[in-house]
Amino acid sequence: MHDGALYVQEALAAGAMGYVSKRAGPDELIDAIRTVQRGEQYLDRALRPPPASDAGGPQLLPELTDREAQVFLLLARGHSVARVATTIGINNKTAYAHRSSIYAKLKLASDHELRMLGKRRGLVAAS
Fold this sequence. Notes:
Distance between the termini: 15 Å
Number of strands: 2
Radius of gyration: 16 Å
Low-confidence stretches: 50-58
GO molecular function: DNA binding
Number of domains: 2
Largest sheet: 2 strands, parallel
Organism: Pseudoxanthomonas gei
Shape: elongated
Structural class: mainly alpha
InterPro entries: CheY-like_superfamily, Sig_transdc_resp-reg_C-effctor, Sig_transdc_resp-reg_receiver, Tscrpt_reg_LuxR_C, WalR-like
Pfam families: GerE
CATH topology of the largest domain: Arc Repressor Mutant, subunit A
Strand content: under 5%
Mean pLDDT: 81
Strand order of the largest sheet: 1-2
Order of helices and strands: HEHEHHHH
Protein name: DNA-binding response regulator
């Protein structure tokens, strides 16, 4: 359903062997199924990073560390700091420290601003 880079990254990190967006055509869906059946990982053609010459392509949150980006995504989805901590297995104090660092790096003042930035960057669905 979602094709934002962080959603894809999160699914693959959780162990998904394939990721296909709902816009994929029938031929691509068949390719994906066959690829996963062979034990290989499949990523939707439209979601694949650009060729290696582009050094992995642009990150959607280049200002943040991987952990901060993970916290950002959960906060942008409306999770509380306590729920973020539980979800990713850190203590509340660490989660608050990550949120503080995110606010400073992105010049944000509230979770509302964080959610709006997530929507503008296409990381969470606009509602």
